[in-house]
Amino acid sequence: MKKKKKSWKDMPPAARFGTVIVGAGQLAFLVAAQRDLSRRPAEQIRGSKKFWRLATLVNFIGPGSYFAFGRKRLPRPTRK
């Protein structure tokens, strides 16, 4: 038998709330990655900015990969 796909109205309120929260988190993560890409010089990014812009569009995996692997680590300033 084929299951009927649930619509938004059929979902319990807690499931709707969870869906909205996860969606907002995904959007915030995407915006943070895109903003960082815009502000960071190309020399501080591993690979091309164009690649990372496209990669960040893949749900949580893209922005997470950018923050974990796409940015070069800057040397810490030395204290005098």
In brief, what are we looking at here?
With 80 residues, the chain is mainly alpha-helical. The chain is built from three helices and no strands.
Describe it.
By secondary structure, the chain is mainly alpha-helical. The protein has one domain (15-70). Helices cover 55% and strands 0% of the residues. It has three helices and no strands. It has helices at residues 13-39, 49-55, 61-70. Helix 1 runs parallel beside helix 3. The longest helix is centred in the N-terminal third of the chain and has 27 residues, at 13-39. It is elongated, with a radius of gyration of 18 Å.
Biggest β-sheet: count, sense, barrel? none
- Uncertain stretches: none
Helical content, roughly? 55-70%
Radius of gyration: 18 Å
Query: Total number of helical segments?
Result: 3
> Structural class given helices, strands, pairing?
mainly alpha
| Intertermini distance | 72 Å
Which range does the strand content fall in? under 5%
Instruction: Please state the average pLDDT score.
Output: 91
- How many domains make up the coordinates? 1
- SSE pattern: HHH
Identify the overall geometry.
Answer: elongated
Number of strands: 0
